[in-house]
């Protein structure tokens, strides 16, 4: 039975004439339904029927799915010949918007998939700016911009976000850092369960160190010379150790605050004395580390000057 409305037609359509969407909000890998999930959905449809038809639009040959890929795959698994469909005449833009809204409402996209979909809409296809997309999907402009900013991170970090090992708020703190710091902090966040506040304290300290480097002066190292590259490698290692120490200092501050809030007065004093001792020792190591970096930079500048004079 064909049901006609002002904007669509509902009918049974042969599955063999339906193809997946060409323009999709999801990546190729995410469109592949896991076997167990597909079987579970197929079992539910066999038991209760297809409660909600899929939405399709006319294509050059047959029809193209607008929304309902999982239902479509489950019905194929059940070897259905036909499937209930709502047929709508839609532009590429409108079809993409329907997919996007449906997936956001169902919370079926991870943050990186959302970011890639937003970028497709705004940058790749040029269908509208951030403010326009925000109205379409009922999200804030800040949310959309922040998601897209995530795509500036290295693939290794994007993978950890997709796997839910790294939260979006944590990842946003890494966006504007050098890649070396990004990777180091990413590992620390996962391994040490750092808070966003911890990360901000660490990155603030890192920025101060960068400013200090600019005062001392940046030097170009001749990578073809073993003599020149050795100090550079040493400085890089000591910078990493400096960041690790600052992370440790931030964690110690967190433990000190926790002790003040949770321990009773009798045990608090002794515990805080130990932690403060650790904190002072860590501060001392940070100072020593900065001195070593300064000395290595002086050594590097002398080597650089000698190389210039010997040319």
Task: Describe the model.
It is a single chain. With 311 residues, the chain is of the alpha/beta class. It has two domains: 3-109, Conserved hypothetical protein from pyrococcus furiosus pfu- 392566-001, ParB domain (Alpha-Beta Complex); 194-310. The protein has 13 helices and six strands. It has a six-stranded mixed sheet.
Short description:
With 311 residues, this protein is α/β, with parallel strands linked by helices. Helices cover 66% and strands 8% of the residues.
Task: List the SSEs and their pairings.
Elements lengths: L2 E2 L4 E6 L3 E2 L8 H4 L3 H14 L5 E5 L4 E5 L1 H9 L4 E6 L4 H15 L4 H14 L5 H8 L3 H10 L4 H8 L5 H5 L6 H14 L3 H21 L9 H37 L2 H46 L1
Parallel strand pairs: 3-5, 4-6
Antiparallel strand pairs: 1-2, 2-6, 4-5
Structural class: alpha/beta
Total domain count: 2
Per DSSP, the total helix count is 13
Q: Strand percentage, roughly? A: 5-15%
Helix proportion of residues, in percent?
Answer: 55-70%
N/C terminus separation: 88 Å
pLDDT under 50 segments (min length 5)?
Answer: 1-6, 29-33, 212-228
What sequence of helices (H) and strands (E) makes up the elements?
EEEHHEEHEHHHHHHHHHH
Biggest beta sheet summary: 6 strands, mixed
Strand tally is 6
Mean pLDDT: 82
Radius of gyration using CA atoms only: 28 Å
Strand order of the largest sheet: 1-2-6-4-5-3
